Structures are given as structure tokens and as C-alpha cells.
What does this fold into?
Amino acid sequence: MENALGESGYQATMMLIVYALGALGIGGLFMALFWPKRWKLKYRMEFFFVVLLIGLVWYADKRSTEMFTAYQSVLPPEAGEISAEAGESVEGFDRTIKVIAFQWGFAFLTDDDEISRNAAVVKPGEKVLFRIYSNDVIHGFNIPAAGITTEFDPGEGRDIWIRAPQEPGKYLIQCLNYCGVGHAQMKAWLVVEGAEA
Amino acid sequence: MASANDIARMGGTPHWEPSDIIGKMTIKDLLFSDDYRHIAIKGILTSILMLGLGGLMAILFRTELAVPDIQFFDARPYMSLMTLHGMLMVFGFVIPFVVNLMYYMMPKVLGTDKLIFAKGAQWSYWTLILAAVLLVISRPDFTWTFYPPMSLRVGGELIWMGYLAVVLVAISEFLAGCVVFANGWAAAKRIGWSNLPLMGWAAISEGLLLTISTPVLGLVGVYMFTDWLQITALFDPSGGGNVMTFMFLFWFYGHPAVYLPLMPAIAVLYTLLPRFLGRPIWSYWSGVVAFALLTVLAFIVYPHHFQPANTVSGWLERTTQILTMMIFIPSTLHVFNWVATLWYDEVPVSAKQSVPFKFIIAAIFFLILGGVTAYLNAQIAVDSDFVHNTYFVPAHFHAMFVGFMGNMAMAGAYYLYPYFTGRMFSQRLGNTHFWFWQVGILTKVMMMYYLGFVYFPRWVVDYLPLKQWAMPQLILTGGAYLIGLGFIVFVFNLMWSSTRGRTVQGDPWPVVVQKGDTPVPASATPAE
It folds into this structure.
């Protein structure tokens, strides 16, 4: 699945590594139990194993840092401020939507001064900046179809951006941080409609 | 051939003359005795009770989650069940159970023949009981990590009891830390650090983790209380406070908290594996290095729990990622060591047939299954994509807490059973328990991993009727019921075998390498 940066290889590679490590470990355990041949590992094997692990750690750090640095570099340098006006458009994005998260829902304010409690409406493929504020307690903001999630505290602004899906339709937006008894109902929709951007 | 050094490092065998200690305990013994076996038995039995209570809560809310729509529990009762499930399991079952296993085994393994500072263990136990009572009365319903400002605003009138309970848990665990550290330290001083059995190293590690992290938890409890009284405003932004203050303080305890049950469980594994195999661990120093590395790293990776927050950015974000990835190395060293130990010589038939050994192998299996996904969780990009606060996180920690630590707790309980009842439990019931649990835990963990991958959110009483959400939840609930059934079989076995089990004399766990060999019992020890 593509993430906001349009990459689908990174996550797949990491999951493959995890499956391989898991298979190695579980395979080793079962062989040690059931395979008739006994094997006394030389101590230096463990050093090689640690070197392999450090290599995997280095690789994951490198790739993950590339991803999140690329993602964060697009964001505006300062988080937006809470003000009465709807958000102005920010350069570099096709659309800017101000989001107010509250117990228990989201309010989307577009730069045309429209407000919706259910949906953020975007065009296919658009680069959309969400400037998010919490009205009361910690909330989360997650769009599964865009592969991004974040959390934010009351009193702070938080920016995230997505590339809207190409297929028109309704995509789930949900709060992922427990925020009270209405948490399970705290959902909204990313509505993708209209002509390509 | 094992060298003299290896044998010393295996420690004294955790072997006593089997006798009906439980049967002979009086109420006075149960409440006040400072004999380490009485204290440990009390702790273990109480932990089993907490496991049952916490498990019952899980069965109840799992039943609600089996299909979409609200059937039995509304949001508030559901969250009460879930919060208490978390708190009772973490504070009441998984940490005390394995710590008490260590209390029972350390005197023999470390060769001191008594539990140093047993009074501390006694006070630790009673403080925890008081905390549990207060917690249940206060009925928190805002998750076991009780993030403010919500947790300051939504509790009922008695919620201050919950904050007080947090302080008491901190005190209880601090005392436990003093006990284990004192025992490890005394043994090291007496026989030398390079002769200290791995359980001793674990005791040092556990002691440091407990004594350094719990004071901060205590502070968190105090500040929650004063914030709630509105005489301070540390955590609530509406009063001028900052949520990040809570995050840094709580998770400074919260990350070591997950290793508090892990260290003793690993220690018990390092002690029992050689016991059942009749030969030493493959590499002593690998174990020592792993314990030391984990203890140090445990204190500096905690920002990964709130990694998506704004404050965890720049240098802090990068180092948290690197250190979190590195902390998976010590645990891998332990697994490598255990697999190598199993592999270098015959696995005795006596081991393969014994219930505790089976639980040990299952524990290692789940440590691998839960541990490899740490590679994904640690990467900020992946965490921000699908891991954070989806079911992927509880999948990881249930594989660890239930799959590894739960199974090790059972291995320890079954191992000790003949020693404190004088009888052997029913093998058939033990095996039934074992299989119910492994199938149940595997089902549960795999379903949770899948649900996390498809973005099922944490902490929800109800969910949209999407097929990729509904079907796995139903299967997950089935897995949970299986675990519950296994628990019932376990408790029945404990009770039934205490009067009908075969009496045991000598060593209940003699090593028989090949079928037909003469059993090799543990070295005879004088009756206690």
C-alpha cells in the first residue's frame, strides 16, 4: 500500500525482514528440539549474529529516517495557530483544511469558510494539509487509506499532510487515542470526489 | 563436559524436599509468616487470583466485541472492565507472579538459603493488596495508562482512591526491588560476580529497574491527586499545565515497567532450562551482557510510547528510534542462548514429557513471535503508518505478557507445585491446559496483528461492521475463551491434585536422557 510519499516498497521490505527473522527464530527452536542432529554453536557465531542485528538496525534506522524526514520536510515550519478564522491556504499544498477535534467528533473548516462535522471533501490525488487542534483532551487523527496517524494534546497545533486517494469514494478518518466514552464513535469521512487535481 | 565454573554458575539447584507446605500453613502463617516459602506461596496464589479476575474481565469485554454493535456493555462499563483488566493484569498478576517465583527460588539458586529482607517482601505484598482494593473501588474507566487531562476530569467522586492506589503500587514495587537487589548483591559479594548465577544477575537488573523507576510512578500518582484537587496544575493544560510532563514522567516508569515481569521470567527460564536438560546454559557471559544492556537501555527508550507527539521530534525522535531498535538486541541474545543450549546436546525425554518444560518452549516461541515485530514498532515511519494505537500494539504486548510471561509463570507454578504440596499434579490436565493456552494465545495474537494491520483502533467498545474487522474479532474472542478454559483447567488441577495427586518423594523432576536410562535426581538436600 502506498504511503503519503507514494512509496510502497519500504513497508513491504520491513515486513519481509520481520517474517524472515521470525521464521529463523522459530525454525531454529524447532530444529533444536526435534532434529536428531545435535550442533554445538561456536561462540563466535553469536558475534556474527549480533553484527547481523546491528546491520538490520542500521538499515531500518536509515530507511525510516529517510521516510519521516521526507514527510516532515514538506510541512510548514510552524504549526498553525488557533484562531477564529478558517485556515488560509498554505503554499505547496492543493488544499488546507483546519480540523478541530473535540469530544467526540471532528470539525473540518475549509479555506472557503465552510464547516462540516462529517466530512473533509477533497479532489482525487490532491496534496492536502490538515492543521489539527484539540479542543479538550488528547485525541488522535488517522486516515487508514492514506497510511498516516498522529496524536496531539490540547493547546497545541499539529500538522499532517496526505495525498488524497485517486479513487473517488468515502474513506475513514478515526481518532486513535482514548478520549472518553465517545471515543469509539469519533469517526469522520474523507470524501474524494470531483475531477482530478 | 561442564566445567566446575559452569556448574557454579548454574547455581544451586532449586530443589527442596517435597512436602505439603500449603497443607500445613495456618492462617497466621498465611498472613504474617516471614518464611520465604510462605511469602512466595501467598504471592503466587494471589497472583493466580488476579489472573482469574483480570481474565474474567477480558472474557466479558471480549464477548461484547465478538460482533459489531453494542450488545451487553455500554462504553463506560466496557472501559471500566478494560481498565481494570489492564491494571490487575500488569500490577496484580504478571509482575508479582514472577517476582514471587524468584523469592521462592533465589535462596536455593543463590546459595543464601534464606530470603534477605523478607520483611520487605511481606510489606510489598500487603501494600499491593491495599492498592488493588482501592483501585477496584475507585472504578477507573480511562485505560490503564490514565492519560490526563481526561483522566482528571471523568472519574467519579472516589477516583482519588485510584491515584492513591498508583502511589501504593509504586511503594510495593519499590520494596520488591529492594528485596531482589539485596539478595543478588549479597550473593555476588559472597561468591564473586563471575560466579553469580544468571538468576543473581537478573535480581540485580530487576532491582535496579524497580528502585529507579518506581519513585517516578509514585510522583505521578501524587501529582495526579494534587492536580485533581486543583492545588497544582502540572498536567492539565486548562489550568496551565502540560500533558507532556505526564508523558515523560509516566513513561519513564512505564517502559521499565514492561521489563519488570520480563527479567524474572527470563531468570526463571535460565534456571529451569538447565534443570530439565541436565546441562549448563550455552553461554554464561552472553546472558550477563544481555541483562546489563537491557537494564541500561530500558531507561532511555521510553519516548517511543508517545512518539507521534510533537515534542518527540528532531534529535529526540531519531535517538529514540535508534535506541528502541537496539533494545531488541539483548532479548535476541537470550533467545539465541536458549536455542543454542537446546541444540548442543540431547533433549532428555523426561524434559519433553514434562509440563513445565512444554510451557518453557511455548514461552520462547512467543517471545520470538512478539519480539520480531518490535523491529516494525520501533521504526518511526512504520509506527506513524499503521502501528501506533491500532491493535498491532496490543498484539505485540499480549504476545509478550501472555505468550512469554504468562507461559513462564505457568512453567514456574507447575515446577514448584510438588515442592509445596508434596504431590504431583495430573499430567493429563496439565497437558490440556497447555494446549488450550497455546492455541488460544496464538489465535489471539495472530488476529490482533492482522487487525492492527487493517487499522482496527484500540480502546473501542464498538466498531463499524467491516468484514475485515468483524471476522477477526469473532475468532479472537474464541481464542480468549480457550485461554479462559485453560485457566479453569489449571485451577481445577491445582485443587484436585492437592488431595488426589500422586505423592512425591525425592526429586519430582529427575533427568532421564534416553528412554530406559536411570533417572538422575537433583543432589539430595536436607529436609527443611
The domain at 22-500 of chain B is CATH 1.20.210.10 (Cytochrome C Oxidase; Chain A).
